[in-house]
Amino acid sequence: MKRTWRFWGALWVGKKISLLLRLLGKKGTTLPGRAALKINPYMIRDLAREYTEGIIIVTGTNGKTTTANLLANILRTSGKDFAFNQAGANLVTGITGALIQNTGWSGKAKVRLALLEVDEATIPKLCEQIKPNVAIITNFFRDQLDRYGELDTTIKLVRNALPKETDLILNADDPLVAQFGQEHQHTLYFGVDRTPESKTQSTETREARFCPLCGAPLDYELFHYGQLGVYHCQKCDFARPQVQVLAEDVHPEEANLKFRVGVTEYNLALQGYYNLYNALASITAAKRLGIREQEIERGIRRYIPQDGRMERFLLPNGQVTLTLVKNPTGFNQVLQTIFTAQSKVVRLLIVINDLAADGRDISWLWDVQFEYLGENSERIQGIICAGLRAEDMAVRLKYAGVPERKLRIEHSLEAALEQLQAMGSGDEATFIFPTYTALFPMRALLEKRALTNFALQSDGLENRRREGQG
User: Fold this and answer.
1) Is 361 a catalytic residue?
2) Residue among 81, 146, 152, 361 flagged as catalytic
3) What does the pLDDT profile of the chain (470 residues) look like in tens digits?
4) Which of 121, 370, 436, 462 is the right S-S partner for 400, CB 3.0 to 4.6 Å?
5) SS (HEC) of the chain
């Protein structure tokens, strides 16, 4: 296809802005992408033609960033080069900017494979311009109702937008995701046999109580968390599909998860069963791409948590784990994780903002099972509530049964971090849970104070030395 003046103008303007941002020491793909799209609204379409080895997208409510980063680590381990919006800018502007960064001034792509994290609401706009070769769907949960609307609306948008030719990688344990396999011939499913926390009954908030095909109630043989589990419809033949990539022998340790897929043992440097699903999604996609089992295992084992997804920092007064919270199901899993994998006393800093990117409506906090903290209050050294809605968070915890003497309010992030560090002896398990707009400011504060971005990096180097990799 002949390149027009719009293409060249958009490319060069985008690249000049990207270069200027780098010279200023700033990261960013959104601004170059926004400027490029003003000149050429079809810039993604024009750039995507260069990716002859394929375009992989990752979408869903929770786990997009971690799944994409895990898959990226596997691809790098296998020696593949690819374009990637690693900064997490998953709207149209960010995706455009990432593709521009991976395109030369001559208009030629530097690589032929693209891995893109995509916001659910962006899928229709993206698929107007490209046809992804592979789409990974992690899960669907209620998230920022003021932005996305009802969950059924989000699911319908994604389902109607994905081309029928796209190969799907689906979470078999989530009926809201598994239903997509009814309309696509080329589908691979991942799932979990059971976890130590799986139950035959559940009181958790869950999104799928009824069959997505006929509307009859769903029966569950096993709940993993939320609506994820082993299910079947009482009326029609809709049920958890046959799983090609199944995690078995799942057991958490203090800082990681171990599980088996087939005959291969995996060791994941992340906590939380929700991260088990992220790993399975990346493993399934890697298998679809033809990557060898040994390289997949190595990519998972060498993964270092980053960007506030169970990311660890070593501070003068102990190790701190930073992880984003943004909706009830994700927060529930994080709370369960901090008590499941260890026996230490814990200290917490919870930062709740209500800016546009967080969701203006914070009523979702009342759907989080903070009662879990109240029931385990003897193991809590203290909880600091920070952010724009610190008082709301403290009130929610009080009603959940957390003793008032263990609650503090501090709006300043820096002062809150200082208080957290001063609390206790440093032997406690320490966690910081921010909403989105507080994540990167808090991460910057932690990086400034950190002795190191935790020992996992040196562990990874040691592993590579043992294997003769460097």
Assistant:
1) yes
2) 361
3) 678 889 999 999 999 998 998 888 777 778 999 999 999 999 999 999 999 999 999 999 999 999 999 999 999 999 999 999 986 688 999 999 999 999 999 999 999 999 999 999 999 999 999 999 999 999 998 765 544 557 888 899 999 999 999 999 999 999 999 999 988 879 999 999 999 989 988 766 667 788 999 999 999 999 998 899 999 999 999 999 999 999 999 998 877 899 999 999 999 998 888 899 999 999 999 999 999 999 999 999 999 887 777 888 988 888 899 999 988 888 988 888 887 656 678 999 999 999 988 888 899 999 899 998 999 899 999 999 999 999 999 999 999 999 999 999 999 999 999 999 888 777 788 999 999 899 999 999 998 888 755 444 444 434 433 343 33
4) 370
5) CCCCHHHHHHHHHHHHHHHHHHHCCCCCCHHHHHHHHHHCCCHHHHHHCCCCCEEEEEECCCCHHHHHHHHHHHHHHCCCCCEECCCCCCCHHHHHHHHHHCECCCCCECCCEEEEECCHHHHHHHHCCCCCCEEEECCCCCCCHHHHCCHHHHHHHHHHHCCCCCEEEEECCCHHHHHHHHCCCCEEEEEECCCCCCECCCCCCCCCCECCCCCCEEEEEEEEECCEEEEEECCCCCECCCCCEEEEEEEECCCCEEEEECCEEEEECCCCHHHHHHHHHHHHHHHHCCCCHHHHHHHHHCCCCCCCCCEEEEECCEEEEECCCCCHHHHHHHHHHHHHCCCCCEEEEEECCCCCCCCCCCHHHHHCCCHHHHHCHHHEEEEEEECCCHHHHHHHHHHCCCCHHHEEECCCHHHHHHHHHHCCCCCCEEEEEECHHHHHHHHHHHHHHCCECCCHHHHHHHHHHHCCCC
